[in-house]
Amino acid sequence: MRPGDNTLKVVLGADIGTTNCKVVAFDLNGNRVAEESMEYPTYHPRPLWAEQDPNDWVNAFMKCARKVIEHVKRRGYQVEALCITSQREGVVPVGRNGRPLARCIIWMDERSTPQAERLEERIGREEIYKRTGLRVAPTFTATKLLWIKENQSQIYEDTEIFLQPKEYVNFILTGVACSDPSLASRTMMFNIHKLDWDEDLVSAYGLSLDKMPEVKPSYEVIGYVRDEVARKLGLNKSIPVVNGGGDRPCEALGAGVVEEGILGESTGTATNVMMSANKVLLDPKMRILCSGHVLPKRWLLEGGTTPTGAILRWFRDNIAIKEVEEAKSKGVNPYDIINEEAEKIPPGSEGLWLLPFFMGAKATRWNPYLRGAFIGLTLGHSRSHMARSIMEGIAYLAREIIEVIESLGIKVREIRLLGGAAKSLLWSRIKASIWNKKVKLMKELEAATLGAAILASLGVGLFKNYEEAERNMVKVKEVIEPVKEWIPIYENAYKDYLLLINTLEELMTRIYKRWHI
Length: 517
Prior knowledge:
- By secondary structure, the protein is α+β, with helices and mostly antiparallel strands.
- The protein folds into 3 domains: 1-87 and 217-255 and 444-483, ATPase, nucleotide binding domain (Nucleotidyltransferase, domain 5); 89-163 and 181-215, Nucleotidyltransferase, domain 5 (2-Layer Sandwich), CATH 3.30.420; 306-412 and 491-515, ATPase, nucleotide binding domain (Nucleotidyltransferase, domain 5, 2-Layer Sandwich), CATH 3.30.420.40.
- The chain is 41% helix and 21% strand.
- The chain is built from 18 helices and 23 strands.
- The strands form 7 sheets. Strands 17-18-16-15-21-22-23 form a 7-stranded mixed beta sheet, with helices on both faces. A 6-stranded mixed beta sheet has the order 3-2-1-5-14-13.
- It starts with 8 loop residues before the first strand and ends with a helix.
- The mean pLDDT is 94.
């Protein structure tokens, strides 16, 4: 930090997430000074489709940012810079007038499965993985672009530029359209070795780079908030906008997951297990991914899943009616009641397993035709058993990913817990016991916004480098040990979990491939 500078300074980190927008003002010691969040809808016009309206992101950001700015101004703080992170892989077709031509097809949308299968057959999954660090999957932007080109040809032709969520909001704020390595590398069009668009591969897809944005470093100032936008936000003057990046690499930065051996596990809407690497590191079996980072000379190993934490939300909305009503009467969060009930159930949920594949499977199986299931239900099981089995099933899935990372010769010496699920002490103890490893609970669980704030501080020179920023802004809250009595129970239950999935995967694939859903 600049010596002798005692000004009350904050940087704004914003996250355009899957379920809501968060804007947080952090001081230079990593403390939250003010925060606001706002939900927006996800539309599901057909099974396995998922869309969002880009205008919802902008409206939510503007409302949240204005409230945060008002709060910090009242407390005498000065806003130094803004940086946005976001969900990845979604695609916004932006017309020549700067407006979206359609809703964003977001990351969890599976409609481009046929396009993905065609690319895999024509080019080969090994070749694409070797160049991009990604598995061929409908998650990634290239398959979505092919779907638009084949099914909405007029929108494709009329599009001036295709942008991901963070890029679109930055464009509205500054008028500058650009990407960064962490988002560009999730398109399946970006060479992970060269850290640049792969023209030969994109041409082989039948696409063009003419409509793709320029790639700039994540920590670079790309512009300033336009005057008319600054007035709406209540800013006294325009402030710098730092490029930012994808939610997972920003989350890694915000949790101090920047060295090999330190692993981060984040369960929010989905689960992601991640580790920073000093070089491109690919899995010979292609079970996990290697993506660009928001840090220079760093890559991110990732085992990302389809929605997992969203399964608990589904349980809350569709099954835990009694718990929700009780929470309303007590004025508490429904998840607190669900957590209390799950805690009454013994480890292993008395023979009940959850298969957490409600929207297909990504890491480590990469099978869009896998489906979710509760296995072992009896008349003696209750909603409480189901709640605990959800927590356990997601922890088993994360263990599969951890084991893959360790199979690459990297010893996991530390696991840091992030995301909304880490608010549950029970769930954290379940994870520690299933993984048989100590876990560290971070002070800042929503680390993506903190990572964005760190990028903002680096972009305007408030710290010399990211190591100094980490020392000042990233804090560990608590260390959680495995429960000794649970370890052998979960060791056997994990083996049975794997047996169930391995037995059912071929059957589910055959059935749901025939149903085309």
